[in-house]
Amino acid sequence: RATTEDLHERIRAAKATLGEKLVILGHFYQREEIIAHADFVGDSFQLANASLTRPEAEAIVFCGVHFMAETADMLSEPDQAVILPNLAAGCSMADMADIDQVEECWEQLMEVYRDTTDSSPDGLQPVIPVTYMNSSAALKGFCGRNGGIVCTSSNAATVLEWAFERGQRVLFFPDQHLGRNTAKAMGISLDRMPMWNPNKPLGGNDEQALLDAQVVLWHGFCSVHRRFTVAQVEQARAEHPGVRVIVHPECPMPVVDAADESGSTDYITKAIAAATEPTTFAIGTEINLVQRLAAEYPQHTIFCLDPVVCPCSTMYRIHPGYLAWVLESLVAGEVVNRISVPADVAEPARIALERMLAAKP
Ligand code: 13P
Ligand code: SF4
């Protein structure tokens, strides 16, 4: 059995041999043993951009989850191989919206909205599909084909504004919480955000609510961020007077409302970096990021709102053993665990991704 130090040594040696041919991307939620080897560390938006910055690299090893590697494959050059060290690193939220269910929902919405195109004074589309980055390439392709766009947690409000310039309503999937929290912060009232229920029989969703909607939400959620509660926020405030509570917008709305601020992993990182006075931060996001920030900023007190350790179990599936294996395979001239999105899916998905990258804040 290889020791951790052996694995690090093997990774370093393979990296040195591959040189400029290789780039390793690491999401903020990766464990430290992986982050130590990453060339770029960031949130899902930054890593999508990072995929564009090294066109000369032959291999992009993506230490994150499946949908992120798919995105990197679609944004990178066709001859670059995107590799996910462990193919079992998925995302339970992304799995909550499958393409068949979304197509079915879309068909029913088109039926409900059939008369509203003509009634729009500006010729706006009845509804614009917006998918969170945390979704399969097939859903991004669906958005590309239907006038829609992708968003991440760092640009969701900008993207919703983009969508409202083109449509009367938005269908937002898969994360109900990011959709609700973002729309609420933009002043949209909760009674104009019905949730689509894919389990209701044909015509079972409330037609009037769908007609009155500004944002139709999907039922998905993140199993990590769903764990945070208002009681935890209250406890942090009671135990640490003056604490600054920052949570990720994938948390349920009452938690976001109880916090002082909410924002993407990049927002959280920058907020802590910008604090000039010693501050106590209670953070509502994945534990690997929180612990790294606590170690990086010893002048502050930084802790996770959830006292029971709260990792993303699928991000955690990227173990240094897998990283060593994929890199050594590359040294041996073999590409393993390549993520390759078929052209008929990638083409429209790229359109939705490029709309996002071009949408200005
Ligand atoms: P970011 O968009 O903040 O990187 O978050 C990705 C993610 O998976 C959060 O759960
Ligand atoms: Fe998916 Fe949640 Fe893990 Fe992010 S933290 S990858 S949304 S399960």
TrEMBL record:
[4Fe-4S] cluster binds at C91, C222, C312. Its cofactor is [4Fe-4S] cluster. It is an enzyme of class 2 (transferase). It catalyses: iminosuccinate + dihydroxyacetone phosphate = quinolinate + phosphate + 2 H2O + H(+). Binds 1 [4Fe-4S] cluster per subunit. One of its GO terms (molecular function) is metal ion binding. GO terms for cellular component: cytosol. Keywords: 4Fe-4S, Cytoplasm, Iron, Iron-sulfur, Metal-binding, Pyridine nucleotide biosynthesis, Transferase. One of its GO terms (biological process) is 'de novo' NAD+ biosynthetic process from L-aspartate. It is found in: Cytoplasm. Pathway: Cofactor biosynthesis; NAD(+) biosynthesis; quinolinate from iminoaspartate: step 1/1. Iminosuccinate binds at H27, S44, Y132, M133, N134, S153, H248, P249, E250, T265. Its EC number is 2.5.1.72. Catalyzes the condensation of iminoaspartate with dihydroxyacetone phosphate to form quinolinate. Belongs to the quinolinate synthase family. Type 3 subfamily. This is Quinolinate synthase. The lineage of its organism: Bacteria, Bacillati, Actinomycetota, Actinomycetes, Micrococcales. The gene is nadA.
